[in-house]
Amino acid sequence: MEILKYLAVYGAGFFTILVLDYIWLGIVTKQFIIKEFWKLISVTNGSIDINLAAGILAWLSIALMVVTFVTLRFTGYSQIILFGALMWFLMYAMYDLTNLTFLTGYSLKFTIVDIMWWTFACTMVALTSYYVLTLFK
Known about the structure:
Blueprint: H1 2-28, H2 30-37, E1 43-44, E2 47-48, H3 52-71, H4 77-102, H5 108-135
């Protein structure tokens, strides 16, 4: 039963980030990303070409990090929200600001949007996975 609990909690995190990122990248910000990164990406029939294997590994990593370091460590929705948001705000601030430092053409506008998005998205992953965890108690 314990293994089922962890599979459900990690699975909920993975499914949440998969759905949210599809909506965000595939619908909401698709044109923004094409405009910002047109030199670095390939677009076919108006859709951004992706490396699906790398994407799946990235989404799995996100779910593993959020569940392991937030969902399973803190209790109560207020702590989950606080530490889920804080962890990802700091992580993506480091990532995007490093890119802004070294990558020619990496925009401040994208940096701000990306930090805000990942703070929100990973907080939602933490909340969803925590909700599933509470179903087992």
